[in-house]
UniProtKB/TrEMBL annotation:
This is FAD-binding PCMH-type domain-containing protein. It holds the Pfam family FAD_binding_4. Its cofactor is FAD. Gene3D superfamilies: 3.30.465.10, 3.40.462.20, Uridine Diphospho-n-acetylenolpyruvylglucosamine Reductase, domain 2. Residues 81-258 form the FAD-binding PCMH-type domain. Belongs to the oxygen-dependent FAD-linked oxidoreductase family.
Length: 552
């Protein structure tokens, strides 16, 4: 199928050059931007599959705003001053993606690719750069094809949400599960491109560790799969962050076995109830316990028994087994938690999706296939990793800094297990052996006016945490995108400038990512504030590939 499409594109490319000459002449003669867009739209109509324009939205269309806003999660990027796209394309077939790439390239428009729209900096639908841009919104491409039995796997198109994917896989068999994140509205496209962690990562690794094939449209508009894209590009798209290498239109994922019943619990302790020493114990054992046990910690401001503000430490957990077995495991490794049967709930794996998303009011698993409700809110976040336990006596200080925030949430997830068995070079995600847990700092707010204060608190908190977290380089998670770490100023920003943030996300893998980029997108078409810059190390393609080969 892929080959067919590539050959279909060849006659098109010839046609395209002639058509383009006309379009350019018009664009140069008339500088009205609307005319430029019209020509871009004309360009798209050369796609034999563009039989109507139902998949194209420009600011003149009455549905433009609703389509644009539909998956904006972070309200910080939904204001009237947020830069908006010239057009939104919602492809109905892969050729719509291919022609959008070719036409955008010709008109020198940038591309923003959106699957679930959860990007922390809104980079899937807005731009801080001056160049006009077009959004490719994949929400209509979301078919899911499941193959059960031995080597169970799924082909999922990238416009699907994690919730839809989880739902349909669990419908196929209640003993099949997908390894990915805990938020059901997150998009499969961006999430897996950046790694993707969730409550089975200690047993099965990241979502990206479970990718076995992919279909992408590359910078030349070609639709390629694992075989035709080659192992270097296939390596880069599994964790190198979305948007730098092409438009992923479908992933093939390994499915994993989940037992009939799994067990969840959520136990909260204030400082007065010994929260700090429990936290300390968790630091020592969370990454070492059975791989069936995932324990994350949520730190929030709570109230103690006399109504005074305190820190609340919540142990939020999933165990791939029965409640009895869980209590046995905790009694062995973490008796201080005092976990009891009444704290534990056995449920089907699919039900844990609702549990971890804190659903309320009788929501059912059927709601997962409705892709909602989108959690629209103002938020800001940063990430860190911890490699050495934070001394217990320092915790008081950290809690004090938390209390200075309005309503901060710190989420920490134990690594270890499969996460540290996988080599740091296997895929671009580098934070493996020796990493105890990650920290996500988040502030949510509902009123625009407090944004400045929240963001400034978080920057201070991040500064103060420096002695306690992984450093040189400080480690960050690309799926928790943070533009404070550094940005590309324009498409000429060099690899060495980008190293400052690139090494935080990818460690030594950043260089290899930049070399792959130099081969597959040397002109930096897929360019944005934190895209991987091309590192061009040699003049011929053959040499470049050899260089990558010798780097491995
Ligand atoms: C409420 C919430 C909960 C979250 N929970 C988790 C969690 O449990 N675990 C975890 O690891 N992360 C989690 N995240 C982070 C999430 O994984 C990232 O924000 C992820 O990038 C979102 O993917 P998306 O498709 O929804 O986002 P988008 O905003 O659509 O895309 C994110 C980035 O990927 C690019 N991109 C999107 N689709 C494609 C594609 N098809 N091909 C190429 N590039 C693409 C975009 O251009 C953008 O740069 C959460 C985020 C939120 C807001
Ligand atoms: C525009 O939105 C309306 C109302 O939601 C819907 O009925 C209509 O089909 C949409 N049109 C297109 C082209 O998407
Ligand atoms: C384009 O349309 C034709 C027939 O209408 C179909 O066979 C082909 O698969 C489509 N191409 C893509 C890339 O969807
Ligand atoms: C609640 O917190 C306040 C302030 O830290 C403290 O003085 C008080 O003893 C706490 N009360 C209880 C019941 O823990
Ligand atoms: C704790 O709460 C009580 C009653 O609400 C209040 O009088 C007291 O000042 C508070 N103490 C602290 C340390 O905040
Ligand atoms: C989950 O929901 C409950 C009730 O709606 C709320 O009190 C609690 O704070 C929520 N927890 C989280 C972690 O959001
Ligand atoms: C937002 O906060 C400002 C300043 O504190 C206040 O004046 C305003 O009423 C708030 N708006 C809403 C909708 O709560």
């Amino acid at each position: 199928m892929e080959l067919n499409i590539i050959t279909q594109m060849i006659p098109y490319m010839v046609l395209f050059s002639a058509a383009v000459a006309v379009a350019v002449a018009v664009a140069v003669a008339v500088s009205d931007p609307v005319v430029v867009v019209d020509n871009f739209l004309q360009c798209l109509t050369q796609d034999p599959n563009a039989t109507n324009s139902d998949f194209v939205f420009t600011p003149n269309d009455k549905n433009y705003s609703s389509v644009l806003e539909s998956t904006i999660i972070n309200l910080r990027f939904a204001s009237s001053t947020t830069p908006k796209p010239l057009a939104i394309i919602t492809p109905l077939t892969y050729s719509h993606v291919q022609y959008t790439i070719l036409c955008s390239k010709h008109f020198k428009f940038q591309i923003r690719i959106r699957s679930g729209g959860h990007d922390y900096a809104g980079l899937s639908y807005t731009s801080n750069l001056q160049t006009p841009f077009v959004v490719i919104d994949l929400k209509e491409l979301r078919s899911i094809t499941i193959e059960s039995g031995q080597n169970a796997h799924v082909w999922v198109e990238t416009g699907a949400t994690l919730g839809e994917l989880y739902y349909w896989v669990s419908q196929e068999s209640q003993n099949l599960g997908v390894v990915a994140g805990t938020c059901p509205t997150v998009g499969v496209g961006g999430h897996i491109s950046g790694g993707g962690f969730g409550n089975m990562m200690r047993k099965y690794g990241l979502a990206a560790d479970n990718v076995i094939d992919a279909r992408i449209v590359d910078a030349n508009g070609r639709l390629v799969d694992r075989k035709s894209m080659g192992e270097d590009l296939f390596w880069a798209i599994r964790g190198g962050g979305g948007g730098s290498f092409g438009v992923v239109v479908a992933w093939k994922l390994n499915l994993v076995y989940v037992p009939d019943k799994v067990t969840v619990f959520s136990v909260s302790k204030t400082l007065e109830q010994g929260g700090s020493s429990l936290f300390n114990k968790w630091q020592h054992i969370g990454h070492k316990v059975s791989q069936d046990l995932f324990m994350r910690i949520i730190i929030q401001i709570g109230l103690n028994d006399t109504g005074n503000k305190t820190i609340q430490v919540t142990f939020n957990s999933m165990f791939l087994g029965s409640a009895d077995k869980l209590i046995e495991t905790i009694t062995d490794s973490f008796p201080e938690l005092g976990l009891q049967e009444k704290d534990c709930t056995e449920m089907r794996w699919i039900e844990t999706v609702l549990y971890f998303d804190n659903y309320t009011k009788g929501d059912s698993i059927d709601d997962l296939k409705e892709r909602g409700p989108e959690p629209k809110i103002y938020f800001n976040a940063k990430s860190d990793y911890v490699k050495q336990v934070i001394p217990e006596e320092k915790l008081e200080e950290i809690w004090k800094w938390c209390m200075e925030g309005d309503n901060p949430v710190l989420v920490m997830e134990s690594h270890g297990g499969k996460m540290s068995e996988i080599e740091e070079t296997t895929i671009p995600y580098p934070h493996r052996k020796g990493y105890l847990y990650n920290i996500q700092y988040v502030e949510f707010w509902g009123n625009e006016s407090s944004g400045k204060r929240r963001i400034s608190w978080m920057r201070k908190m991040y500064e103060k945490m420096t002695p306690y977290v992984a450093n040189n380089p400080r480690a960050a998670y690309v799926n928790y995108r943070d533009l404070d770490l550094g940005v590309n100023y324009d498409s000429k920003t060099s690899y060495s400038n980008a190293m400052e943030w690139g090494n935080k996300y990818f460690g030594d893998n950043f260089k290899r990512l930049a070399m792959v980029k130099g081969v597959v997108d040397p002109d930096n078409f897929f360019f944005f504030e934190q895209s991987i810059p091309p590192l061009i190390t040699s003049t011929t393609d053959e040499d470049k590939i050899n260089v990558i080969g010798s780097y491995l």
